[in-house]
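FAQ

Q: What does a record look like?
A: Structure on top, sequence underneath. For example:
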């Protein structure tokens, strides 16, 4: 079966203080906390999922926030910028909003009919908001600080930094079924499916940049969508046949995952759209309670004792409802 992902599933990054992380992504950026769980490989650490109103694939930014994590280094071999999609006329509103929250922003840059505003999260993670004319039907989350008319719709694109582009481009096209879209100097854009917000990746060629170091303020991996488990299994076999070192299929409770590195060094994942975040709590209550996979439930009391308490906005806080 030929691999042909429809776009980005999620981006996972390393954060520092969990409360600071939640405050920024829930209050400043206005995303919804769609799942509160733990790192399955390190259950003393949160795994926080932020997304749109329903936590749909393509809207998701997730974090492993370690309070004492050292700072990482941005460079080649990693995803260096994560971009979110916003409505076409909202870029000015966002610049004023971020500056009012004491967030330093770059100048609004226009290229290819897109307005882009860059900034960093509290741990230094590079982010961007992209206002574009394509339209984005994804459901926004409405908050007091970020009204729905301006709210983030989901992921727009990611930027992979590499020293050489050929092998990475080959993985994106031959390995994941993306197509080459455009080139602007040392930046090459690839698109999944029909392209557009949530289906784009930029490859930035920077041969003299330092090698990136994954720690706080950097992206851990970028995940691409597979519709279901049978498709994912077939894609895994196809990647193995291509000589790619792929993990076995792992149960992440809300999706199934396989991991591999593209030749430029970035860790990639293919994650299924199914079963989704409503598998263990109602849609209206997403993210309000700590959810654990069955194999960690016997340790719930111990895990809850290890995790720092989070002060969450009212919509994610059952004590305030």
């Amino acid at each position: 079966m030929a691999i042909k992902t429809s776009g980005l599933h999620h981006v996972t990054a390393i954060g520092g203080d969990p409360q600071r992380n939640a405050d920024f992504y829930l209050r400043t950026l206005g995303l919804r906390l769609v799942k509160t769980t733990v790192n399955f490989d390190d259950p003393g650490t949160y795994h926080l999922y932020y997304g749109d109103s329903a936590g749909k694939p393509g809207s998701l930014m997730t974090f492993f926030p370690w309070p004492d994590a050292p700072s990482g280094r941005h460079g080649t071999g990693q995803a260096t910028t994560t971009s979110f999609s916003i409505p076409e006329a909202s870029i000015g509103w966002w610049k004023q909003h971020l500056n009012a929250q004491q967030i330093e922003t770059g100048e609004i840059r226009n290229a290819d009919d897109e307005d882009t505003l860059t900034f960093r999260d509290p741990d230094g993670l590079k982010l961007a908001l992209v206002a574009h004319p394509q339209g984005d039907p994804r459901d926004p989350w409405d908050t007091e600080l970020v009204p729905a008319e301006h709210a983030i719709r989901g992921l727009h694109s990611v930027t992979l930094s590499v020293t050489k582009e050929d092998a990475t481009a080959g993985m994106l096209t031959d390995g994941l079924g993306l197509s080459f879209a455009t080139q602007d100097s040392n930046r090459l854009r690839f698109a999944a499916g029909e392209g557009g917000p949530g289906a784009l990746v930029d490859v930035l060629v920077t041969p003299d940049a330092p090698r990136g170091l994954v720690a706080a303020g950097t992206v851990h991996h970028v995940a691409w969508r597979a519709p279901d488990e049978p498709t994912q299994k077939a894609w895994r076999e196809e990647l193995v046949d291509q000589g790619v070192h792929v993990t076995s299929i792992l149960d992440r409770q809300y999706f199934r995952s396989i991991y591999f590195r593209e030749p430029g060094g970035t860790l990639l994942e293919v994650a299924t759209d199914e079963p989704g975040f409503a598998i263990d709590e109602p849609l209206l209550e997403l993210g309000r309670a700590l959810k654990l996979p069955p194999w960690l439930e016997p340790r719930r009391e111990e895990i809850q004792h290890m995790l720092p308490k989070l002060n969450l906005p009212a919509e994610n806080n059952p004590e305030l409802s």
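Q: Is there anything notable about this one?
A: The chain has a mean pLDDT of 95.
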